[in-house]
Amino acid sequence: MFRIADRGQFPFPHLATVLVALLLGACAGQQGTGLPVPGTGSQPVEQLQSFTIAGKLGVRSPTDNGSANINWQQQSDSNYRIHLSGPLGAGATVITGNPGSVSLKRGSEPPMRASNPAQLTQQMLGWPLPVREMFYWVRGLPAPGGSAGEKRDTAGQLQALQQAGWQLEFSDYQRVGRYTLPTRIKARTNQAAGPVKVTLVIKEWQT
User: Fold this and answer.
1) Which domain holds residue 100?
2) For position 196, which CATH number holds?
3) Of 46, 86, 143, 185, whose Cβ has the fewest other Cβ atoms within 10 Å?
4) 26 versus 190: which is more confidently predicted?
5) Residue 24 falls within a domain, yes or no?
6) In 10 A of CB 169, how many CB atoms?
7) At 61, is the secondary structure helix, strand, or coil?
8) Which distant-in-sequence residues (6+ apart) come within 8 Å of 79 by Cβ?
9) Confidence of residue 22 (pLDDT cuts 50, 70, 90)
10) Rounded to whole angstroms, how far apart are CA atoms 18 and 22?
């Protein structure tokens, strides 16, 4: 009958010591690789093309000073519906965009259409809302085209950016599913009529 040798009878004591050392070394190596644990890794935010966000939009401009609830539904990179409700914009305002066109409707007024959302909101609301660029900014990304003053934290998350005539600050990132997304964006620009400051606080992300 097979019997395990006691400590004094183990025929190769040095071999046992080597095996234990190798096992401990392998475990330590696995802990220090820095590889993501399966099922917990983040996805690049560039892959997030459709989303819904809800929160608050605050604006300070020479013609307006207030805030509104915002509900933004985005489908792909050029189809969106932004609903503003509250004092800002004199009640309910709906901005709808599709390739090559954007419309803005305030209350019971007939919708106005244009090709550039920032120009349309400037004309109708008195301050610009750069929706095309914001599609990237709300995900913590620079929009295509030239940019400057880009700053990131140690995790690679965008903290500051200058683009399209706007100076932006990003903060309060949070994990949403497999994405890490900002929940507060401050933007300011100088217009001929004076400075404009826009603050977007995202209270809910749906991806």
Assistant:
1) 46-206
2) 2.50.20.10
3) 46
4) 190
5) no
6) 16
7) coil
8) 97, 98, 99
9) very low
10) 6
* 45: Cα separation from own chain's centroid: 7
Q: What is the pTM of this model?
A: 0.78
Q: How far apart are the first and last CA of the chain?
A: 64
For residue 99, give both structure tokens. 């390739």
- 13 lies in a domain? no
Residue 172 lies in a domain: yes
Number of domains making up the chain: 1
The mean pLDDT value of the chain amounts to 83
CB atoms near residue 15 (< 10 Å): 10
DSSP state of 143: P
In a domain, 70, yes or no: yes
Give the residue carrying structure tokens 């709906």.
Answer: 94
What is the average pLDDT across 156-163? 96
Residue 135's closest CA among 44, 53, 61?
Answer: 53
